From TrEMBL:
Keyword S-adenosyl-L-methionine: no
Cellular localization per UniProt: Cell membrane
InterPro entries referenced in this protein's UniProt entry, alphabetically: Bact_Sigma-Reg, GAF, GAF-like_dom_sf, HATPase_C_sf, HATPase_dom, PAS-like_dom_sf, PPM-type-like_dom_sf, PPM-type_phosphatase-like_dom
Keywords: ATP-binding, Cell membrane, Hydrolase, Kinase, Membrane, Nucleotide-binding, Phosphoprotein, Transferase, Transmembrane, Transmembrane helix, Two-component regulatory system
Gene3D superfamilies for this protein: 3.30.450.40, Histidine kinase-like ATPase, C-terminal domain, PAS domain, PPM-type phosphatase domain
Species whose genome carries this gene: Streptomyces roseirectus
Domain GAF span(s) in chain numbering: 331-495
GO molecular function terms listed in the Swiss-Prot or TrEMBL record: ATP binding; kinase activity; phosphatase activity
Signal peptide: none
Protein name as it appears in the record: SpoIIE family protein phosphatase
GO cellular component assignments: plasma membrane
Membrane topology: Multi-pass membrane protein
All residue ranges annotated as the PPM-type phosphatase domain in the record: 513-730
């Protein structure tokens, strides 16, 4: 207490000194501000100051006046300056002519400035005021300043008085404390405050803080002390202390133990409905009075606490298992099944999940629509609950309907006593009760503001009903599952949209052509559609183009980009471009796509393979941009991969693409595919190519059997990427269906060519096409002789259509135009376009080819056997 009193007095002294210093400092600062402003204004308004500023040498006039005024006013400085802040006066002459340090803008406008700054002479206050002429103009500025130390002497005068007063108070407090401490020691028999405090703290802790009963019994068997817990456990009367333990109404065994004082450890006694573990020790062992101390612990409560702790641990295990076991796939139905499998039998005996139909399809739930049982699991078979897949419509009083309407869990502790639940289906609910299901919790599946369905937890094996704690666990369990169900719903919606878009962009049927016998497969990835595509494009001259491409990535962006590239290939192919030229234009297109939307991911992962097969020459021209090489299966079963220079993927640009031309025997199989077929997470591309070669070597000769064999051998268990596959068996256009003539550069030769063509059409039994064909040839051959270059050739092909081709060495292409009434020519090509079904121009390394095709009569067509 003595030390406490001294500390209190010292704190008061320190507080008084600090308050004094702060007050004096504040007063000093205010005084400095007032003095600085008053001196500055007095000097600025003094007679002759404005005139001196207008004199030729203001310093000579004002420096003596400023120094005299400074000393008279006891200021640290008085500075007179120009309106721009150039000093005319200063206590230190070497600073005259330099710029003033401080804020002068308000004074330049006619105002006043008072500010606190840290100057070279310490903390000071300075004021700046304007000097005005008779007409009100600011002709100069005056600044006066003083340090705060110069006006802070009050504290030095008052501090000794405060210290003397504090010392006297300290002496009085010390004397009073000594008198009080002596009296306390006499009354406590020499125990100091610390010992007294410790004794009472321990006594209070033993009596009230511990969760064990404490009894002290003297050597005669009299109860000396019993804490509150002992009173509760033994149901002791209020006046128990001081009475014999044998007279407190305890059972004989417990009373005898307490009166005997014998040493026991965790001896169990039944007292009322409690099992008490008793520990007893003598008190005279440490030199104390005779008697014993007994402690009592309620083992019944400990067992209950242990049981609750075990339940809490099990619930944490369930929630942890839910976090890692629910949502392993992005499938709504499978996620619902994972929830039921997790909850049975760890939490409930039967669990059913009912979701809105639209949720299973990936759409947002429609309030009021029917639900469908999506998943159901139980510990026994044959439960009379609704089956999986059955549509449901709950009545308003059913717990499931209430959960959906109110957005909260509903507990039906005893189903037998629940008329609202029974109203759903009286016959079925009676069967449920007879089956042994007696308690129910329904929890809505909520994801944000959306209610996706309801989960029902049923109990039958354990006799006790569900309680409030289990309702909270059910809500937490469903809340975790709801997030994954909603994620699966969103994925299903996006996957369906992307797959629909992609399939709408892919070819639905292959065009009619006679050069190739084709089978194909397209398999979207399980995790999301990608950008794989393929196409078969008939070209002029009975040729066919095959294209396979892959846009890296998944989702709508990849599918949309694929559609743009496929459309571009269609347009470029219509120009009859060579493969390397088409890929070059496609590369430029991808670059433009990337530049259109810089925020989107670039399409530099797009690859493409473009091949053109000519059934007349049986030659195949190919080029690829970063795509896997095509496989060729020869008629004898030998498999090889065409050595096509790979080129860079589309979008990288900078390097031209290279073309390879191969001659394929009739009956060869050309296999084009995307990397999803040969490459996966657990298989590199080299191993995939080896497996592909083995599968092609084993496959039958037809395109369809080849597709089946390849997919059976290479399709992974979980497909993470799209797969596009084309198998094309080559066919040749026989010599009996091809006619070719070389035409000299003489207009008179046109008639000879017409006659030769007419004879060949007669051989082909196509006499009705002779007139139109001769008209087409006359125009095309005449133009070639007149405007083209030698050699001029004519070729006639009988395929699904009659194709007439005229080639020459010139690269100049004719253009269709409408001739005016006064024009002598220009109508021949117009007539060709009107007569022919299609016509066009393609370029070659030696010039150009102008072609026109006509449909064959229905009874003269020559379909190719498949």
């Amino acid at each position: 207490m003595f030390v406490l009193q001294v500390v209190v007095v010292l704190l008061l002294v320190v507080a008084a000194v600090v308050a004094l210093v702060l007050q004096v400092r504040h007063d000093g600062t205010e005084e400095a501000r007032n003095r600085s402003l008053a001196v500055a204004e007095s000097f600025a308004n003094a007679p002759g100051t404005a005139d001196a500023l207008a004199s030729p040498d203001p310093t000579a006039v004002l420096q003596p006046r400023a120094e005299a005024a400074r000393k008279a006013a006891d200021m640290d400085f008085i500075v007179v300056m120009s309106p721009d802040g150039i000093r005319y006066t200063h206590p230190r002459p070497d600073r005259i002519g330099k710029r003033f340090v401080g804020t002068i803008a308000p004074a330049q406008q006619g105002g006043r400035v008072v500010e606190d700054i840290d100057g070279t002479i310490g903390r000071l206050v300075q004021a700046v005021v304007p000097v005005k002429s008779a007409d009100g103009r600011v002709v100069g500025l005056v600044s006066a300043g003083i340090t705060t130390e110069s006006v802070g002497g009050t504290v030095d005068r008052q501090l000794p008085l405060v210290l003397v007063t504090a010392g006297a108070a300290l002496l009085l407090a010390t004397g009073g404390t000594a008198l009080v401490s002596r009296r306390l020691l006499r009354q406590t028999h020499g125990l100091g405050p610390r010992e007294m405090t410790r004794m009472y703290e321990h006594h209070d802790a033993v009596l009230h803080a511990v969760r064990e009963g404490v009894l002290i019994v003297d050597g005669d068997g009299r109860l000396m002390l019993a804490n509150d817990e002992a009173h509760r456990l033994l149901d002791l009367p209020d006046d128990a202390e001081g009475r014999y333990v044998t007279g407190l109404g305890l059972d004989a065994a417990t009373a005898g133990l307490l009166a005997s004082g014998r040493v026991v450890t965790d001896e169990v006694h039944l007292v009322g409905d409690k099992l008490l573990a008793v520990n007893q020790r003598p008190t005279e062992v440490a030199g104390g009075p005779s008697g014993s101390v007994a402690t009592l612990r309620d083992s019944t409560e400990l067992r209950a606490l242990s049981g609750r702790a075990e339940q809490a641990r099990e619930r944490l295990d369930i929630l942890y298992a839910a976090g890692v076991g629910i949502g392993t796939s992005l499938d709504v139905t499978r996620t619902a099944e994972e929830l039921t499998e997790l909850a049975v039998p760890r939490f409930a005996d039967f669990v059913s999940v009912d979701l809105f139909d639209s949720v299973v399809k990936g759409e947002e739930p429609e309030p009021g629509s029917a639900l469908r049982r999506t998943a159901s699991t139980g510990v026994r078979k044959g439960a009379p609950l609704y089956a999986v897949g059955e549509p449901l419509k709950f009545v308003d009083s059913a717990p499931q309907a209430r959960s959906l309407a109110e957005g909260r869990a509903v507990l039906e502790a005893r189903l037998k006593e629940s008329p609202g639940w029974r109203a759903q289906d009286l016959e079925r609910t009676e069967q449920v009760v007879e089956f042994g299901i007696h308690s129910l919790i329904t929890v809505p599946v909520r994801a944000g503001a959306l209610v996706l369905g309801v989960v029902s937890f049923w109990r039958s094996e354990r006799p006790e009903p569900f309680d409030a704690d289990e309702v909270a666990l059910a809500e937490e369990l469903v809340a975790r599952a709801a997030v994954t169900i909603d994620n699966a719903r969103r994925f299903t919606r996006e996957h369906s949209m992307a797959e629909t878009l992609q399939r709408s962009l892919l070819p639905r049927t292959l065009p009619a052509q006679s050069a190739l016998d084709i089978a194909y497969r397209y398999l979207p990835a399980q995790a999301g559609v990608g950008g794989d595509w393929f196409d078969v494009l008939p070209l002029s001259g009975a040729r066919v183009a095959l294209v396979v491409g892959d846009v890296v990535g998944h989702g709508l962006l990849a599918a949309a980009t694929m559609g743009r590239l496929r459309t571009a290939v269609h347009n470029f192919a219509a120009l009859d471009l060579a493969p390397e030229e088409l890929l070059g234009l496609l590369d430029e297109l991808v670059n433009r796509i990337d530049q259109e939307d810089e925020s989107a991911a670039p399409v530099t992962g797009a690859t493409c393979l473009y091949a053109i097969y000519d059934p007349v020459s049986r030659r195949c021209t190919m080029a690829r941009a970063g795509h896997p090489p095509p496989a060729i299966v020869h008629p004898d079963g030998r498999v090889e991969f065409a050595e096509v220079p790979p080129g860079l993927p589309l979008g990288l640009g900078g390097l031209p693409f290279e073309t390879v031309e191969l001659e394929l025997p009739e009956g060869s199989r050309l296999v084009l595919y995307t990397d999803g077929l040969v490459e996966s997470r657990d298989r590199d591309i080299d191993s995939g190519l080896d497996l592909l070669a083995e599968a092609l070597a084993r496959a039958d000769a037809g395109p369809e059997p080849t597709c089946r064999s390849v997919l059976e051998s290479l399709l992974p268990a979980r497909q993470n990427d799209d797969i596009a596959l084309i198998v094309a068996r080559t066919r040749a256009l026989g010599a009996d269906r091809v006619a070719e003539w070389e035409v000299p550069m003489d207009p008179a030769e046109v008639g000879r060519v017409r006659a030769a063509v007419a004879r060949r059409l007669t051989e082909w039994d196509l006499e009705e096409l002779s007139f139109t064909t001769e008209l087409i040839l006359s125009e095309l051959v005449t133009n070639a002789i007149r405007y083209g270059g030698a050699p001029v050739r004519v070729r006639l092909l009988r395929d699904r259509t009659l194709i007439c081709e005229v080639s020459d060495a010139s690269s100049t292409s004719p253009h269709l135009r409408y001739a005016a009434m006064t024009d002598e020519g220009g109508r021949g090509l117009f007539l060709v376009a009107q007569i022919a079904e299609r016509w066009g121009t393609r370029y070659s390394s030696t010039g150009k080819v102008i072609w026109a095709q006509q449909p064959l009569p229905a009874d003269r067509s020559l379909p190719v056997d498949r």
